[in-house]
Amino acid sequence: MPVFASAETSAILLSLKVSAAATLLSLPFGFLAAYLLSFGRFRGRLALDVLVNLPLTLPPVVIGYLLLILLGRHGWLGRALESVGFPLIFTWRAAVIATSVVGFPLLVRAIRVAMEGIDPHLIQASRSLGAGRIDSLLTVVLPLSVRGLLAGSVLMFARGLGEFGATIIVAGNIPGVTQTIPLAIYDYASSPGGDRMALGLCAVSVVLSVGVLLAHEHLSRCMAKWG
């Protein structure tokens, strides 16, 4: 494996930073969406389900282009953010948003599986003892959904390490600024003499992904013993 220069090291660290930030940003919204889809009985539930899972079927480039329209200088949200001095397009924060959108369905699905496995009698018992909806959510649903939260977080983090299509549209491929591992590999693979560095970054990507999955397996076993 080649010795990485500062640009490659920056791409590795930025990938970890973007994936971690996207996962943390998405966790509360993913938990809320999973709760509404698991226990909610309201009009528009099907529409919410379709919206949450839509990024699984859309090409990442399409997601990136739609985000570009929304967050760009001519988009209503992009103009509002730029007016307060907080531009997003072609910054690492845009990569975080793109990664959040693409990985969000994986997070919600894992949490939803855990929630749907909760015995409804436990929730009914807490409500009969005087707990409100929020109390039941925090004292029953949340603790029993920890494994789903963990599994979804790991899946989303691992997915974020490989995100390419949406990121390159909204964040660009700027070395040292927005260039993540997949974007750096793309650069090297399309450049003469870049095969060696591309293979090195591929190896790093494999090692990181395997490490994340092994850590998830270890934590799952620990939680099974504690539970």
Supply database-style keywords.
single chain, mainly alpha, MetI-like fold
Description:
This protein is mostly helical and 227 residues long. The chain has a single domain, classed as MetI-like fold. The protein has helices spanning 6-39, 45-57, 60-71, 76-83, 92-116, 120-128, 133-144, 146-161, 165-170, 181-189, 195-226. The model has no long low-confidence stretch (mean pLDDT 89).
Average pLDDT over all residues:
89
Number of strands: 0
CATH architecture: Orthogonal Bundle
Largest sheet descriptor = none
The level 1 CATH classification is: Mainly Alpha
Report the sheet-strand fraction. under 5%
Rg from C-alpha positions?
A: 20 Å
What is the string of helix and strand elements? HHHHHHHHHHH
Number of helices: 11
- Gross morphology: globular
Parts with pLDDT < 50 across at least 5 consecutive residues: none
Structural class, by secondary structure, is: mainly alpha
CATH topology: MetI-like fold
What would you give as the CATH superfamily?
A: MetI-like
Count of individual domains:
1
Distance between the termini: 42 Å
What helical percentage do the residues reach? over 70%
